[in-house]
Amino acid sequence: MALRRRELLIGIAGAGGLALAGCAGEPAPPPKPAVIRFDPAADAHNVDARKPGTVKVADGTLRNVEWIDETGRSLPGISAPDHRSWTSSEPLGYGHTYTAKAVAQGETGEVSATATCSTVLPDRLIDVSLRSANKVELAENDTYGVGFVLVAHFDEPVNREVAAARIKITTVPAVTGAWYWLDDQNAHWRPERYYAPGTKITVAAELFGAPLAEGGYGLRDQRVSVLIGPAHVAIADDTTKQIEVFENGNLVRTMPTSMGKGGTAVVGGNVLSFWTRPGVYTVLDCRNPVTMDSSSYGLPVNSGMGYRTTIYHAVRITHDGIYVHELAGSMWAQGNTDVSHGCLNISPDDAAWFYDFVIPGDVVEVRNTGGDPLDIWQNGDWTIAWPDWLRGGAV
Predict the structure, then answer these.
(1) Do domains 124-229 and 232-380 have the same CATH topology?
(2) Which of 5, 265, 295, 307 has minimal CB crowding within 10 Å?
(3) What DSSP state is assigned to residue 319?
(4) Class assignment of domain 35-119?
(5) Angle (nearest 5°) at CA 133 between 361 and 294
């Protein structure tokens, strides 16, 4: 009986061994066909113009890709080293209809696929001018003073949030800055304090493809870098009637001055102020000579208070015509009495020196005068307190 039980166990073990041998011989999985995918996907509409065209393949390699627009032009592109993807080397652009074709090699042989897509067609294109406060467009490696303000002027009103997000400002060394929107077409950017000398500022306006307004999209991308020169700060104090000029914190010249005589007058229904407004100005440009005409701000030459005269070595610090300039005829008042209509009069020698010393963006701080504070529209960006500046950037 024991022998028969042993034979039975051996038989069962032998049968199990046969079963295991059978598992090791399962058939191999079937070959996989290559799968081609397009991005944008087939039949996509209003595709972002900034987007590139891409083709990817799973379980295979790409043999050929064509991405052709409505005119028959082929979009250039580059295949990855492993030939599993292809990416166009330029964006899809505005108002195109593309037909994309791809051939891939997989385990089952060649497969092909075709897709069409179309990109957004703007009603109009919107451009931005990147400027300094003097309204001159920035040029690569231009040098500005420590009070430099970036001005972005758009062709038409734009969505502030979209526009601000697409204009990227980087500085070396790094500083924190913010936008201040004067209206929907004009935005200014500055840090809380003056820049350090030697700072490099790079502005990258990545507006191509951006939906800036209803039906309006960005025309192009722009990139420009400018540099900050030495710290030139002139402090004009109406208490002392002196302008102290500093370079990198060191006093380099003191110039007697005569500022705005103060008060107001009503001329032709307009209220004209004769104060040199208190605040932080920056140099806009230098002119030699310049013709100063009081009728340009509403004071007729023949009014008894008006003037039209040629002035030399004039440094403009507001958009409405306030200058630091020479005036030999008021040297008797310079350092003791304010007699001007708002400009800062200095001697011919001081004016010639100051004219050669400053560059756009240099700072002129006017202290202890009367009248309303300098307005941002006049070139008073730095007069605005930082918390108020931040509120001006709210979108």
Answers:
(1) no
(2) 5
(3) T
(4) mainly beta
(5) 100
